[in-house]
Design brief:
The chain has 346 residues and is an alpha/beta fold. Helices cover 39% and strands 15% of the residues. The protein contains 13 helices and 13 strands.
Length: 346
């Protein structure tokens, strides 16, 4: 695709870009995210043309604005005139961006900052825990669903069960780290790097992300400091186990090196006898594979004492010495669980 110099460019940025990613799987059900990346040869010219008028912003965004943040945020060339329009917010870029820093939108002339650049931008504006949850989302296989006004919501199917849009991960921790290394002119990136060290790939739900972060975040942040597990690790089954589960394989929510599987069990998964039996069969198969099985429910996660009982089992299986936390550390742990329950707030 040849870029025409006369075509204005509108680059969605910051929170408005996050809303675009959250809306993407529902609008493009089977698209591989990488298919949206703009080539390096086009990127510089697009940025130079990112000086839109408010009329152009309205025309290109069209009806998508109702599905996103109330005030559009766009990235513009530093050469743009500071008109300070009241109906959208401008962020200026002057230095070069890393390769792949822009993705192509669905409308002509519409672009969006890449997940890697978005992560760096939000590190300047959101809290540590919120950025952890957003990073888990960008590197996971789910997105937080939005209502028609762009607010986060719980989407339920015909049976009343909550569901999330599933998709190929938009990015990976490794890609984010490589992009941060290439960024110049973005100021300190220490917070982004600290958060990135806490993030795991392939999370399939917000609750899996909360469990992962509570287990693995540094103790000074209120985490338990447990070595990071694999998220949604595929476990192969033998013939007998396949017959038991009627599946060729299963995935463990949190998996530690042939020793331990922690599974998130929502109340909805036990809403019928057949679902309860399936959960019990999964637990039996995991133990047959030589794994210690620990189930986590929302009631366990948000009840500190019950959570610590489960944590004691995890520490024992992993061979980690477990001590009762001193009051200061217990306060940090309780606060992290509270914040994880509320995040992301945008």
């Amino acid at each position: 695709m040849e870029v025409k110099s006369a075509q204005p460019a509108i680059i969605l940025s910051h929170v408005f870009a996050l809303m675009w990613y959250r809306a993407l799987p529902g609008r493009v059900p089977k698209a591989r995210p990488d298919s949206f990346r703009v080539t390096a040869s086009q990127q510089d010219e697009i940025i130079l043309r990112a000086i839109p008028s408010r009329e152009q912003v309205r025309a290109v965004l069209g009806g998508s604005r109702s599905r996103m943040a109330p005030v559009p945020e766009i990235l513009v060339s530093a050469k743009a005139r500071r008109t300070r329009p009241s109906d959208y917010h401008e962020h200026y870029v002057s230095g070069p961006l890393p390769h792949g820093a822009l993705w192509r939108g669905r409308a002509k002339g519409l672009y969006v900052v890449s997940p890697e650049l978005l992560f760096a931008q939000l590190s300047k504006t959101v809290s540590f825990v919120d950025l952890c949850m957003i990073g888990q989302e960008l590197c996971g296989t789910y997105v937080m669903p939005l209502d028609e006004h762009g607010a986060l919501q719980t989407v339920r199917d015909d049976e009343g069960k909550s569901r999330l849009h599933k998709h190929v991960p938009f990015t990976t921790p490794r890609r984010i780290a490589a992009a941060l290394d290439q960024m110049s002119g973005f100021g300190p990136k220490s917070k982004a790097r600290r958060v990135l060290a806490c993030i795991g790939a392939q999370s399939a739900s917000p609750m899996e992300s909360r469990l992962f972060l509570a287990m693995t975040m540094p103790r000074r942040k209120g985490g338990l400091g447990i070595p990071a597990p694999e998220l949604n690790r595929e476990v192969k089954l033998n013939n007998e186990q396949r017959r038991m589960l009627r599946k060729h394989h299963l995935k463990c929510d949190l998996y530690w090196d042939n020793r331990l599987a922690v599974e998130y069990e929502s109340f909805e998964r036990h809403s019928s006898p057949s679902e309860y039996e399936e959960t019990m069969a999964r637990a039996t198969v995991l133990r047959m594979k030589g794994l210690e099985y620990v189930a986590m429910t929302p009631g366990t996660f948000y009840n500190y004492d019950r959570l610590m009982d489960k944590v004691a089992i995890i520490f024992k299986v992993l061979g980690i010495r477990h001590r009762k936390p001193v009051p200061k550390r217990e306060r940090l742990q309780r606060e992290l669980i509270r914040q994880l329950g509320e995040a992301p707030s945008i």
